[in-house]
Design goal:
This protein has 96 residues and is mainly α. The protein is 81% helix and 0% strand. It is globular, with a radius of gyration of 14 Å.
Length: 96
């Protein structure tokens, strides 16, 4: 049985959002586009999740165009879940 791309994107993005949110809260990075997002955040008032969204959109668009429309939609949905999830995790940790 083949897994649904949408379900895979939602599950994967949720796990990544929690892990990335914890990393960003302690001012850490996993590398890649995270570094660009941290630089954007440092020199602007943009939250880290939104900065990461801006840096990842181009990658999702290129990958989705090469893989087909259903994958593009699932990838974009996963990107949105990851973006808002990171900001949510950081906000929840910061309240404590």
């Amino acid at each position: 049985m083949i897994a649904s791309p949408v379900l895979s994107a939602l599950t994967g993005a949720s796990v990544i959002a929690v892990a990335s949110g914890i990393m960003f809260y302690i001012d850490s990075s996993s590398g890649g586009t995270d570094i660009i997002a941290l630089i954007v955040q440092k020199f602007s008032s943009i939250r880290i999740g939104r900065a990461l969204l801006v840096t990842d959109i181009l990658i999702v668009l290129i990958g989705g165009l090469l893989s087909g429309f259903p994958i593009l939609c699932a990838s974009f949905l996963g990107l949105l879940v990851k973006t808002f999830g990171i900001d949510f995790v950081i906000a929840r940790i910061s309240r404590r």
